[in-house]
Write a structure and sequence with these properties.
Bound molecules: adenosine-5'-diphosphate, magnesium ion
Protein name: Cation-transporting P-type ATPase B
Order of helices and strands: HEHEHEHHEEEHHEEHEHEHEHEHEH
Subcellular location: Cell membrane
CATH topology of the largest domain: Rossmann fold
Radius of gyration: 22 Å
Organism: Dietzia psychralcaliphila
Number of helices: 13
Strand order of the largest sheet: 1-13-12-11-2-9-10
CATH superfamily of the largest domain: HAD superfamily/HAD-like
Family: Belongs to the cation transport ATPase (P-type) (TC 3.A.3) family. Type IB subfamily.
């Protein structure tokens, strides 16, 4: 490729809202045959909202929201922001949390002072504080907090709709389910049609639940395989650290892999992929790890970038 043609291609990319780290990037872009898409913030807007609250039988909904909201208020995760904001809207000020812990890709926990009927909290007496766990149902199961049937049902219903259900528990029991919804970008389905038109295989990759992933995939035109956890095209329940392994596995099958992501949890996978594309509205970590940045966060620009590189390099052979 002549430097001139590559520079022209790079300039044309900038006009299309695609920032290219260096002209040599166009070379690897041309050979890509598989495009891995992170779900949250990439295929979806990532702007979550709390849409429903289910308290387990005998539990108080306001208390559920207060405790879950307090713990999530210490987290930067988009799901956590939605839960803290939704809880505050419904029950007002949230109590303080101590001993906050984040379990990457699974959820959070922390101690929230036990409530007193007189409205005062005794900060010296922390023995009756509850360790509140908020996150994937699997995280609660791991902490020996089984889900009663009514909560299982709430999770099933949310998953069918493609919404994420977050479980809340303390004191050895799951106490409720909070459902957060995120919207599929209205450009995602069109982008996926364009990827196919370029002969690329789209793959959805997410840390979220397999049923949520399958529902989102179906809505944007990615066919789920027979096994929705690890299929050819929908790969769900992948911990942040394991996203890299998924990319390596696809590469070991002989594919040339592009990956599009927005999160800190995508950075290593973006760097490992043959071509990393960051959503420009996402995190700095994702942008730094990537070869290309889609300035407007519109997935159709990823198809434009691949078409552009093929055309740019095609003119010079
Ligand atoms: P993605 O791969 O879709 O960008 P993450 O890897 O960040 O998602 O998270 C995977 C899943 O872990 C989420 O869908 C959610 O169920 C759970 N999770 C992670 N962090 C939190 C949190 N702070 N509160 C509740 N759930 C969480
Ligand atoms: Mg993401």
């Amino acid at each position: 490729a002549t430097p001139m043609a590559l520079m022209v291609g790079t300039g044309r990319g900038a006009q299309m809202g695609i920032l290219i780290k260096g002209p040599e990037v166009l070379e690897s872009t041309r050979r890509v045959d598989t495009i891995v898409l992170d779900k949250t913030g990439t295929v979806t807007t990532g702007a979550h909202a709390l849409v429903s609250v289910t308290a387990a039988d005998g539990e108080d909904e306001a208390r559920l929201l207060r405790l879950a909201g307090a713990v999530e208020d210490a987290s930067e995760h988009p799901i956590a922001r939605a839960i803290a904001a939704g809880a505050r809207e419904r029950v007002g000020d949230l109590p303080d949390v101590r001993g906050f812990r984040n379990t990457e890709g699974l959820g959070v926990s922390g101690r929230v002072g036990a409530e007193r009927t007189d409205g005062n909290r005794d900060d010296d007496n922390r023995d009756d504080d509850e360790v509140v766990v908020v996150g994937r149902p699997a995280l609660l199961a791991e902490r020996d907090m089984p889900l009663p049937a009514e909560l299982e049902r709430a999770i099933d219903e949310a998953s069918e709709r493609g919404q994420t259900a977050v479980a809340v528990g303390w004191g050895g029991r799951a106490r409720g389910v909070l459902v957060v919804a995120d919207q599929i970008k209205d450009t995602s389905a069109e982008a996926i049609r364009r990827f196919r038109g370029l002969g690329l295989t789209p793959v959805l990759l997410t840390g979220d639940n397999a049923r949520v992933a399958a529902s989102v995939a179906a809505q944007v035109g990615i066919e789920p395989g027979p096994d929705t956890v690890i299929s050819e095209t929908v790969i769900a329940e992948v911990l942040p650290a394991d996203k890299v392994e998924v990319i390596r596995r696809l590469q070991s099958e002989g594919r040339v892999v592009a990956m599009v992501g927005d999160g800190v949890n995508d950075a290593a996978a973006l760097a490992t992929a043959d071509l990393g594309l960051a959503i420009g509205t996402g995190t700095d970590a994702a942008i730094e790890a990537s070869d290309l940045t889609l300035v407007r966060g519109d997935l159709r620009a990823a198809a434009d970038a691949i078409r552009l590189s093929r055309r740019t390099l095609g003119t010079i052979k």
